[in-house]
Amino acid sequence: MPKLHRKDDGRPIRAAMARAGLSGPELAQATKEVDPTGKGVSPATVGRIAGQGKTARERCELETAWFVAEALHRKTNAPLQDLFAMPTGSTSTIERSTPDADEE
User: Fold this and answer.
1) Residue in 90, 44, 45, 77 with CA at minimum distance from that of residue 63
2) Quick check: 66 and 73 in contact, CB under 8 A?
3) CA distances to 53, 75, 86, 101 from 27, in Å
4) Each residue's pLDDT tens digit in the chain (104 positions)?
5) Which residue among 50, 52, 67, 98 is the one 20 to 30 A from 79 at the CA level?
6) Beta-strand runs (E) in 1-104
7) SS (H, E, C) 16-28
8) In 19-53, which positions are buried (b, 16+ CB within 10 angstroms) versus exposed (e)?
């Protein structure tokens, strides 16, 4: 499954959180409401996605981004594509496996 990249070092996520009046733990709780299993995203993960420090992460799983974006969308109308970007496609044409005949 592809990983999504947060846009602009997470600024759009933090801005949407501010517009919604949600802290990290409150956003984590809101993701439980949009997750059909009720599990949602942990406060620590929200902190890594929205954060700016050493623990901040540029990429996250599609499912995580979806839950965060959906929870924010319900409060602010911010769509997923305003918060996260799909990774660019690989243009590499180099074959990465070795043929069976080359193995010892």
Assistant:
1) 45
2) no
3) 19, 10, 22, 53
4) 678 999 999 999 999 999 999 999 999 999 999 999 999 999 999 999 999 989 999 999 999 999 999 999 999 988 888 999 977 665 555 555 655 555 55
5) 52
6) 3-6, 59-61, 84-85
7) HHHHHCCCHHHHH
8) ebebebeebbbbbeebbeeeebbebebbbbbbbee
**CA nearest 1: which of 41, 48, 59?**
59
Q: Packing angle between helix 24-34 and helix 11-20, nearest 10 degrees?
A: 80
Does the pTM surpass 0.90? The reply is: no
- What Rg, from alpha-carbon coordinates, does the chain have? 17
* Phi, psi of 59, deg, nearest 5: -125, 155
DSSP state of 7: G
Query: In 3-state terms, what secondary structure has residue 98?
Result: coil
Q: What letters, b where the CB count within 10 A reaches 16 and e where it falls short, cover 62-73? A: eebbbbbbbbbb
Which amino acid, residue 12? Answer: P
With tokens 């992460």, the residue in question is 57
